[in-house]
Amino acid sequence: MLNRQVAPKLTPIKSIEFAVPEVVEIKKGIPLYWTKNIANETAKIELHFHAGTTVKTPIVASLTAGLLIAGTKKKTAVQIQHALDAVGAYYDVSVSQEQAIVTIYALNSYLLQAFDIFQEAFMHAAFPEKELKELSNERQEKLKVQLQKVNVLAQRKIQQVLFEETPYAQVISQGDYLTIRRSDLIQFHQENYLNGLAKVFLVGNLSNDDMQAMKNTCAAFAGTQAKPVKGQFSMKSHMVHEDKKDALQTAIRIGKIMFNKTHPDFIPFSVLNTILGDYFGSRLMSNIREDKGYTYGIGSYMMENTHFGYFMIATEVAKEVREATIQEVKNEIERLQTELVPNEELELVKSYLLGQLLKAADGPYAMLDLFSGVELHGMDISFYNKYIQKVQEITAEDIREMACKHLDWKSLSIISVG
Amino acid sequence: MIHFERFKLENGLTVLFHKEASTPMAVVNLLYDVGARDESEEKTGFAHLFEHLMFGGSVNIPDFDGPLQAAGGESNAFTSNDITNYYDVLPAHNLDTALWLESDRMLSLAFTDKSLEVQRNVVIEEFKQRYLNQPYGDVWLELRPLAYSKHPYKWATIGKEIKHIEDAKMSDVKAFFKKHYHPSNCILCVIGNFELDYVKERVDHFFGSIPKAKKTSRILPLEPAQDRFKSKTIVRNVPADAFYYAFKMPERKHPGYYFADLLSDIMGREKVSKMYVDLIKKQKLVSEINAYITGSIDEGLFIITGKLNEGKTFSELDKEIWKIIDHYCSTLITKKELDQIKIKLRTARAFQDQGLLNRAMNLSFFELLGDANGINEEHEIYQSIQAEDLRTFAKQMFTKKNGVLLKVKKKKHA
Fold first, then answer.
1. Of B272, B49, B261, which is closest to residue B157 (Cα–Cα)?
2. pLDDT the model gives residue A246
3. pLDDT at position A1, please?
4. How many Cβ atoms sit within 10 Å of the Cβ of residue A94?
5. CA–CA distance from B295 to each of B82, B152, B251, B273 (Å)?
6. Domain regions of chain B by residue span
7. B125, B341, B347 member nearest A106 (Cβ)
8. Considering only CA atoms, which of A95, A113, A119 is closest in space to residue A218?
């Protein structure tokens, strides 16, 4: 007879198989990582450029990225798009603080053709004035919508205070669209794209010849122009509230500059981060959503850049409970600094993290993303084996120590808008 | 081709199993045949509120998420106007944990007052965060009742108004559970590196003893045919005037559904569609424009939406939208364009099918429509569509009498 009150026995995860991509050198210091033996007909190529928002200004980086395949002397934007559509390819560009990533998705048999269409448009990109106007108009309208959202305003504000007086603090404002010139884009393209390819990730069962063809093409724009440099942040904490009339909720951001995977505290701190706010059963969710009902969601997370990282707590709450929410966040952090995490909770979080790592390594696309996460810091896949071991060894005392060392309440900036 | 096995338990639970040998993970997906369309008009938002309560502990297990997380897994759910779908993704060797948790909450919930009170607040905050505190957030709260006069699609999944959620009572919760949460109202799908016999045995072990209940038949009010074009203007604090044209389109099982879907892909295609080129590039009338379908099981909506550029008017736009519509009603799409759309669909499909969770949800959804194997037939249906099919379909659907228009007008600041 089934006794429903007894949980099934669990089998812990002891090890995970991590697959490493093949490495091909495009030029000295510029690698192409290739994952093959895919069980289906999908393929993708990802080109990483040193062309993020901190390289010059966010407006230049963002509009250049948006117009990479928007016309050459011989072809219009519409013609180029038609050519990509004819091989069933999808094209995407994303820009972050330090890099811009171009991704092309296609069926395996069409990837090389799609890549050729892209590279021809990209190498000869003319940044037509008309296309620039259109994109600026569209982006300006989108920005107007964004700037009415409390979560966006709070996010921009905390970025400005954490990274004060560095390029990382820059955000796009409406006025930027009035001053932008076509020549700025052309120059940025020349310096940071035609001479800025940092690495390539390739997934797909391509023939060796196809891979070589892409590699050779990539060599023409490989370069190390604008590698992120190590900056200095003031580390001062700020407390700002901005009132927004008519807002029904208040967005709260609490954060500070932190480290990335290269720091010895990274793994223990990420366990602490999970306990505090990075899974559904976290302290913040349990208290502020599931006990008090102040919010639809609250979470904490860690972001990483080349030379540093940052830690952030984010939520939107009912307007009248802004202060109560901040107080509860403070209480939760103080509890972690003074009390030991009960064994059951710690074991749960360890199993959860290892289960999530197993999932993150599942399948060629996921695995390559996981690899990319260590490659960025010049580390190799053994990081994850170390991670499994360190997570298993961590104690409640370690967690408390991490909370005291890195989450001093006075070191955190607190922004609220709404 | 996605291969699957199907079996049924004596209590009426339908089970689908798809073997995927290459993954160390397992997916357990439960689709309950209940959505916002099954609510009464005085108590809307209930199917969704109920989805939240399903995480508040069950009759024998006080906490749903904890044991699943301890097994290295995680869980979530969504509610639509048609269905409520729950899923668990966890390491395959801990499959039992997901089956244990899901079977217990199918058996019965804990029904604590605290859980109801907290989740009411959480959902109210969700209502504000997603629908009220965003520019254009309340568009669907306005568009649905404009497009539907009788059918329950006239309210959004989140509910008509916050008050309905505030008023939810424990007796309502219990009655809702009894009516909709039982084996014969659910499709369970398991994916992972297992053998069929093993899955049968484990599913029967956990779900077999749940009592059978009768599946109630669904009788929804039919939406009467519209007799005239309807339009409504709302004034909001938004940065630009926005428009939402909505035309009634066939239900999910009708062949016309696929015509509508493909036509929306063609009309809404970024950068190259006629709508994009004419209205954005040539006339500079709008800053963005798109077309898509709602994809509902009953009669759905074909939407054309976008935002006007500063200084342009709704009436200028209206003239141009109807010109575009007339174009699709009178001119055949070229073979080249149709081929492009079809190969793009092939690519998109190949990428979607990679995801385990996506496969589980799709298999379950097609089973609800009548046969899980629909997942393998759909591709052929799209590939067989001809330009003439689309033109004939466009002519039928794009009539004034079949459409509504919601205009969101920018509030003038004093």
1. B49
2. 85
3. 78
4. 11
5. 10, 15, 8, 21
6. 5-207, 230-410
7. B347
8. A119
Rounded to a whole number, what is the distance in Å from the CA of A75 to chain B's nearest CA? Answer: 14
CB of B287 within 8 Å of a chain A CB? The answer is: yes
The closest alpha carbon to A155, from A282, A313, A304, belongs to A313
Superfamily name with CATH number, domain A239-417? Metalloenzyme, LuxS/M16 peptidase-like (3.30.830.10)
The DSSP annotation for B37-96 comes to GGS-TTSTTHHHHHHHHTTS-BSS-S-SHHHHHHTT-EEEEEE-SS-EEEEEEEEGGGHH
Q: pLDDT under 50 in chain B at which residues?
A: none
Q: Could you tell me if B88 and B33 are in contact, meaning their C-beta atoms sit under 8 angstroms apart?
A: no
What pLDDT sits at residue B414? 53
B96–A78: do the CB atoms touch at under 8 Å?
Answer: no
The residue-averaged pLDDT of A296-317 equals 95
**A359–B66: do the CB atoms touch at under 8 Å?**
no
Whether A352 and B133 lie within 8 Å, measured CB to CB: no
Rounded-to-integer distance, Cα B260 and Cα B249, Å: 7
Assess contact for A280 and A289: CB atoms under 8 A: no
Contact A263, A402 (CB under 8 A): no
- Which residues numbered 304-363 in B keep a CB inside 8 Å of some CB on A? 307, 309, 336, 339-341, 343-344, 346-348, 350-351, 353-354
Note whether A197 and A49 are within 8 A (CB). yes
Question: What tokens appear for B280 in the block?
Answer: 């954005």
**Angle at B368 (CA atoms; ends B366, B154), nearest 5 degrees:** 105
CB-CB neighbors (< 8 A) of B118 in chain A: 289-293
Q: What is the CA radius of gyration of chain B?
A: 23
> Per CATH, which fold does B230-410 belong to?
Cytochrome Bc1 Complex; Chain A, domain 1 (3.30.830)
Contacting A residues, span 151-170, partner chain B, CB-CB under 8 Å:
none
Nearest-CB residue to A296 (from B91, B104, B129): B129
Chain B 143-182, residues with CB within 8 Å of chain A CB atoms:
none
Q: Domain boundaries in chain A?
A: 22-219, 239-417
The shortest CB-CB distance from A141 to any of B103, B104, B240 is to: B240
What tokens appear for B69 in the block? 């997380």
Q: What is the ipTM of this complex?
A: 0.92
pLDDT digits (tens, 9 = 90+) for A36-85: 989 999 999 999 999 999 999 999 999 999 999 999 999 999 999 999 99
- How far is it, in rounded angstroms, from Cα A193 to Cα A198? 9
Q: Which residues contact A254 (CB under 8 A, 6 or more apart)?
A: A312, A313, A326, A329, A412, A413, A414, A415
The helix (run of H) or strand (run of E) holding residue B361 is helix B356-369
Query: Helices (H), strands (E): how many in chain A?
Result: 15, 11
Q: Out of 3.30.70.100, 1.10.443.10, 3.40.50.300, 3.30.830.10, which CATH number does the structure's domain A22-219 have?
A: 3.30.830.10
**Chain B neighbours among A 298-327 (CB < 8 Å)?**
316-318
Q: What are the beta bridge partners of residue A44?
A: A105, A203
For A349, nearest residue in chain B (alpha carbons):
B70
Beta-carbon contacts of B56 under 8 Å, excluding residues fewer than 6 positions away, are B64, B109, B110, B112, B115, B116, B118, B119
Tell me the C-alpha distance between B129 and B123, whole Å: 10
CATH for B5-207 (3.30.830.10, 3.40.50.300, 3.60.20.10, 3.10.310.10): 3.30.830.10
Cα–Cα dist A188/B338, whole Å: 37
Chain A interface test: which of B27, B49, B68, B69 (most A C-beta within 10 Å): B69
Give the CA diameter of chain B. 71
Instruction: State the pLDDT confidence band at A232, using cuts at 50, 70 and 90.
Output: confident
Q: Which of residues 25-84 of A touch B (CB under 8 A)?
A: 39-42, 77-78, 81-82
